[in-house]
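User: Can you recover a sequence for this backbone? Please restate the input before giving your answer.

Assistant: Of course. Working from this structure:
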């Protein structure tokens, strides 16, 4: 069972990565093997419409909006999480954190 989950997790990571790249995200920190996370940057604002559109795009991979966390998606099988965070005053756009589930 553990090997199946690992394979599903790897496949999800790869598919999600390709979709994010196609949507204009740039990988800025790949710590998947060390810290179980990747950080991406996108020049667009992560407003409500952006988050909804991204959730709709990722839905076919099993991602859903988390009803309890703002700007957060959770994968229904693996428990992976995606959080979107505004870039702050010195960064245009937003950051996206893809983290392994527990």
């Amino acid at each position: 069972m553990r090997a199946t989950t690992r394979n599903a997790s790897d496949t999800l990571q790869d598919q999600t990565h390709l979709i994010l790249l196609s949507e204009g995200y740039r990988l800025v920190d790949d710590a998947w093997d060390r810290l179980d996370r990747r950080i991406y940057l996108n020049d667009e604002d992560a407003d409500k419409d952006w988050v909804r559109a991204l959730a709709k795009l990722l839905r076919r991979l099993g991602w859903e909006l988390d009803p309890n966390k703002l700007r957060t998606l959770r994968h229904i099988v693996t428990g992976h999480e995606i959080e979107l965070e505004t870039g702050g005053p010195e960064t245009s756009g937003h950051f996206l954190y893809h983290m392994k589930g527990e």
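That completes the design. The longest strand covers residues 26-31.
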